[in-house]
Structure formats: structure tokens, C-alpha cells
Amino acid sequence: MDVKEKQLQKFLKLRNIPAEHYIFDQSCHSVQEAAKTVNATPEDVVKNICMIGPSNELIIAIVSGNDRASTKRVGKILDIERPRLAKENEILEKSGFPMGGVPSFGFEATFLVDNKLIDKGYIYTGGGSEKSLVKIQIKNLLELNQAYVSRIRK
Length: 154
What we know:
By secondary structure, the protein is of the alpha/beta class. The protein has helices at about 5-15, 30-35, 70-80, 90-95, 140-145; strands at about 20-25, 45-50, 60-65, 85, 110-115, 120-125, 130-135, 150. The strands form two sheets. The chain has a five-stranded mixed β-sheet with strand order 4-2-3-5-8, with helices on both faces. Strands 1-7-6 form a three-stranded antiparallel β-sheet. The termini are far apart. The model has no long low-confidence stretch (mean pLDDT about 95).
């Protein structure tokens, strides 16, 4: 288990969050890899699209594995200029997690959850590394990250 996976486990334990943290031998970087690894559908896996707002703040747009986030919609919801996609080094610097392992919670950011996910019982999200995932109930995720819920997919 690497240091980022341990950090995430500690976060979940300290907050007594009922979630399952899985660590695998193979990559879960892509939605397809993640879904295959946990025997789920791509709709059960979320993508955390990292964006940078006009004040250099981190914005996380959480969408279903088959969807794409709209920077235009995110900008409108937050009443800001259209954000840009974060670079790999910015993702690590601002979230503390590497690209491909970013969870949907656990660090300072503005979180937006696509309204299509609200009816899901649970989702799989990044687990701190490219080889780990967290299975968490959507209601617990929303409590953890105090997300805006709106249509953010294209």
C-alpha cells in the first residue's frame, strides 16, 4: 500500500465513513479498467475531472464513467469564467493525489456532482493511486465533499 492509499484510508477511518477501499495488482486508471477490475459497469465508476478556476482554485467535476464534463456548465453553475482542465502536476499539487487515483473527496476543492449520479446507490471512485478504488454510497459522498448537484455532463 502506498502513502496516498494510506492517507485516504486514514481519512475514511477518522470520519467513520462506511466505504470500501480496494487495492489491486493491476491498473484501474481508465473507467474500463476500473469497471472490469470490480466487475461493475462503466456507469458505476465515476471520473473526477480536475479543473482550475479563474482564481487558480481546484474544481472537481464528478461524472459517470461514460460521460464527459462540460467546462461551460461548470462555469455557469459556479458563476465564474469557464474553467480550464488542470495539468497533471497541478492535480497532484492541489489534490495531493496522482492523476488516475484522485478520489471524489478528501482534499480542499469545489466539488460538483452530476445529477445523473444521485439515483445511484453507490459509486466507485479513485482510491489514491492508479491501482486502487473506493466504493462509497452516493449519499455519503455528498456529505463528505459538500458538493453542488447539477447537470455538469455534456
